């Protein structure tokens, strides 16, 4: 039999175990609840976070949609711009390729031009060839102005004065027998012999040529020539540069009876000469028409005289015919008409009618009394034998 202390001890031990188990149960439940609460709290937090993230994602998705809607046309424009840039790049590349080709061709042309320029410079270094060039330019201008060679102008005409022979490059004939003398030997030595030549060197060379040309006094070697000689400068640039360097160049030349003429000024001068020739031709033609009219009028007067004499002859023939008819009626037909009464013939002779019409004479007074032979009925001057300038005579 168990004693009371031992039973109390066992009871206390059991009670302690029960209390410990209860306390362990309560502690485990509390711990479990605490963990549950913690997990629930974490779940709620996670749910809130997920909700917030979902809302953020929805907002981002909406914003992305708006951005996509806004960026869509821009993207198309960017694509179109990119295509245009690619096209422009291709076009620029093609243009650059063509430009390189053209630059190459231009370089070749420049080389050929330099060669030709060198050849021209070498040719113009010769005084004879420079003179030929000036003469060719002069001939072109003269022919362009409308003047005819060997009629209106002549080249290389020689004349002798004081034992010296003079031969200007060209002489232009004027109506009435005048002559304009032109020299085309342009001084280009200052330009051609040295690359460092300045406008002052060219101006001094032209001044020396003017003085030399004035000393020849070409106008005294030709009859009816004006007291000056034309110095032809083949290009306007040469004359303008010389005049700009020495402003008194033209006055100095005129003071020495030398007229400096560029292609433009010479063309105006020659056009004026051509106009005077046309007016002279018209005057010559009018005079020739007047002479022919006078000659025709005189011949018409002679024809009228013949017609008048023919009319008088016809009138005399009519009178003779009428006298013959009267004689025929009175002397012959009177007896002949008696034959039908004898029975020999049955038909009567017809009567012969006389003519009573007369020829019509010329009634115009100026044709009845024409002007004297060799006289102009309009001016009473003797006609002259005129010849046109294009027949080879002046």
Automatic annotation (TrEMBL):
KW Coiled coil (keyword) present: yes
GO biological process, one term: DNA recombination
Transmembrane residue ranges: 6-27
UniProt entry keywords in alphabetical sequence: Coiled coil, DNA recombination, Membrane, Transmembrane, Transmembrane helix
Protein's UniProt keywords contain Zinc-finger: no
Pfam families associated with the record: RmuC
The organism's place on the tree of life at top rank: Bacteria
Region (Disordered): 361-394
Bias-annotated ranges (Polar residues): 372-383
Similarity remark: Belongs to the RmuC family.
Database matches in PANTHER family: DNA RECOMBINATION PROTEIN RMUC
Function: Involved in DNA recombination.
Protein's UniProt name: DNA recombination protein RmuC
Organism expressing this protein natively: Brevibacterium marinum
């Amino acid at each position: 039999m168990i004693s009371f202390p031992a039973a109390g001890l066992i009871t206390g031990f059991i009670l302690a175990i029960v209390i410990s188990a209860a306390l362990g149960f309560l502690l485990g439940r509390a711990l479990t609840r605490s963990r549950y609460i913690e997990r629930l709290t974490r779940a709620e937090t996670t749910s809130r976070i997920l909700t917030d993230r979902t809302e953020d994602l929805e907002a981002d998705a909406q914003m992305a949609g708006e951005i996509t809607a806004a960026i869509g046309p821009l993207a198309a424009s960017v694509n179109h711009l990119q295509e245009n840039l690619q096209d422009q790049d291709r076009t620029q590349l093609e243009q650059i390729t063509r430009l390189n080709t053209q630059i190459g061709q231009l370089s070749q042309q420049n080389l050929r031009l330099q060669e030709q320029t060198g050849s021209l410079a070498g040719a113009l270094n010769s005084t004879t060839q420079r003179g030929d060039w000036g003469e060719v330019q002069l001939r072109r201008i003269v022919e362009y102005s409308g003047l005819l060679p060997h009629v209106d102008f002549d080249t290389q005409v020689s004349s002798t004065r004081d034992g010296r022979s003079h031969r200007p490059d060209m002489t232009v004939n004027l109506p009435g027998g005048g002559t304009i003398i032109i020299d085309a030997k342009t001084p280009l030595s200052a330009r051609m012999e040295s690359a460092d030549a300045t406008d002052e060197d060219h101006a001094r060379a032209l001044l020396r040529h003017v003085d030399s040309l004035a000393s020849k006094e070409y106008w005294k070697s030709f009859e009816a020539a004006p007291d000056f000689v034309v110095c032809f400068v083949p290009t306007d640039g040469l004359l303008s540069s010389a005049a700009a360097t020495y402003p008194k160049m033209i006055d100095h030349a005129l003071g020495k009876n030398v007229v400096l003429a560029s292609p433009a000024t010479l063309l105006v001068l020659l056009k004026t000469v051509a106009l005077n020739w046309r007016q002279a031709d018209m005057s010559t033609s009018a005079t020739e028409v007047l002479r022919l009219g006078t000659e025709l009028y005189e011949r018409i007067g002679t024809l009228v005289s013949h017609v008048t004499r023919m009319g008088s002859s016809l009138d005399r023939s009519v009178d003779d015919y009428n006298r013959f008819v009267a004689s025929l009626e009175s002397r012959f037909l009177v007896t002949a008409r008696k034959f039908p009464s004898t029975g020999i013939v049955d038909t009567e002779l017809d009567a012969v009618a006389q003519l009573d019409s007369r020829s019509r004479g010329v009634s115009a007074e100026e044709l009845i009394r024409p002007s004297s032979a060799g006289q102009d009925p309009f001016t009473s001057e003797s006609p002259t034998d005129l010849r046109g300038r294009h027949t080879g005579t002046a």
